[in-house]
Amino acid sequence: MTDNSFPHDSFDDLLAANAEYQKSFKYSGLTGSAAKGLAIVTCMDSRINPLSVIGLRSGDAKILRNAGARVTEDVLRTLVLATYLLNVSRILVMPHTDCKMAENDEADFHKLIDEQYGVNTSSLEFRTSRDQLGALASDLNRIRSYPLLRDGVVVAGAIYDVKTGTITPYEG
Fold first, then answer.
1. How many angstroms separate the Cα of 74 from the Cα of each of 65, 79, 165?
2. Looking at residue 172, what is its pLDDT?
3. Whether residue 1 has pLDDT greater than 90
4. How would you list the strands of the sheet with 61-66, edge to edge?
5. Could you report the per-residue pLDDT of 16-61, keeping only the tens digit for each?
């Protein structure tokens, strides 16, 4: 039988931090729209603070994160909603340096997880690529050619350097 109760022992630190956060909460006036008309597709890597990287604040942009900053079906679905309903007119795809998803092949991850944890993940597509710039070019093209995005949306790519904080525009 599965216990569906909230696992307080694993999350009480977060609940305590939220109680402190509530005391100075200042975002109740924000809407669900991207105030700066921007969506950022970036990696889940915890070294990236996407809004700070480009001088924005809460409410300014929509942030889509996944392993490797890849443009998946779910990212496209979300961008369609964002471009029609949430004021997004610009999309920045921003992978980063020192990314594990760009250092290994798909088969390497499946093998590692199977060997270390005994779990067969071969039914999943991790979308790894050792050619990070090639993957970025492909993802940018995938967005630009997606027929369901709102007309006039501007799409760009840049690589974020986790050691210096620099973003380098992809000129492809």
1. 11, 9, 27
2. 82
3. no
4. 61-66, 38-43, 90-94, 154-160, 167-169
5. 999 999 999 999 999 999 999 999 999 999 999 999 999 999 999 9
Which pair of structure tokens corresponds to residue 5? Answer: 């109760």
Contact call for residues 66 and 130 (beta carbons, < 8 A): no
Strand, coil or helix: what is 66?
strand
CA–CA gap between residue 1 and residue 62 (Å, rounded): 39
**Binding-site annotation, residues for Zn(2+):** 43, 45, 96, 99
- Enumerate the known binding-site residues: 43, 45, 96, 99
Residue 20 neighbours by CB under 8 Å, 6+ apart: none
Given a cut of 80, whether residue 83 has pLDDT beyond it is yes
Mean pLDDT for the chain? Answer: 96
Whole-number pLDDT of residue 72: 97
CA distance 32 to 78: 14
pTM above 0.90? yes
Q: Which two tokens stand for residue 135?
A: 């993957």
Helix axes 132-144, 73-85, angle to 10 degrees: 50
Q: How far apart are CA 56 and CA 60, in angstroms?
A: 6
Residue carrying structure tokens 């991790």: 126
- Number of C-beta neighbours around residue 169 at 10 A: 10
Q: The dihedral of CA 94, 100, 105, 111: what is its sign?
A: negative
